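Dear colleagues,

As part of the handover before I leave the project, I'm documenting each prediction I ran so the next person doesn't have to rerun anything. This entry is a single chain, and its sequence is reproduced below.
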Amino acid sequence: MKTLCVDLGGSRVKLALMTADSHPQPDVFEVDSHAPLAQTLSLVAQHAAAWGQPDAVSIALPCVVCRGTVIACNGKYTDAVGFDWMRWSQKTFGVPVFLMNDAAAALLGEMRCGAAKDTDAAAILMIGTGIGSAAAQDRRILTGRHGTMGMLGGHMAIEMLHPRRCTCGATGCLEAWAGTWALDEIARQEDGFAESALANARKVDYRALLDGVAQGDAVSLRVFETVARALGMGAVNLIHAYDPEVLLLSGGPCHSEMLMQRIRRYVRENAWTPWGQVDIRVAENPERSVLLGLIRE
């Protein structure tokens, strides 16, 4: 079965015509997730035109998906809510379309072909502009009655004494302490920021933060410890909520061994898992795991 797999990311779209046994390199193009959805989908159709007829279209988005329908978005692809996906797919490709949350698709892809292929109970924490999550038991993605089970790990509260406003409107969310969008504000509130290595960055992100840490910059180290602790708390929340054997960490910051060590140590010291230790792993296919999870079998 040939599936046109489409990963609608915040700044890039990745797509490929895939089967269970064939995983070609995806086509990638830049996109503005605040642009009209119809404009982005038109580009998808143009890029896929040369590949022939798919048997199905499968699309992942950074949105809440419930029973095949986008029911909520947080700043990206907001007009996906209420969009007639099936009509678009039938008109454009003559086949049905299937929708998934992007973190759920990434976890499924890693369980099929990546770092979690040896377990049937896993969760994922995706560290990027925001914080995404998903969980699976018996090799099935948990969705719950309303589509939000497992996917709101970035919006679990981890802080009450110094609550920061999150993009979702709540305060104290993990994402407000560890999402890339929050790092610049967190750093600038530190004493000594103007004299720190971070002051040279146009906007503080994980790359700038880790560069500052490598230089031994005091402000960078303080911010790093704050962020690492927040991610450790988020990891423990997922473990307590969904009982995984394997917790995957995915995203560019996960290439930092120092960050991974901090998260693993926090989990080891704070997670209550009487049966043993959760195996914390770095995702093997972060650039392709979403597409691999979208393949229809």
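The radius of gyration is 19 Å. The longest strand covers residues 12-18.

All the best with the project,
I.
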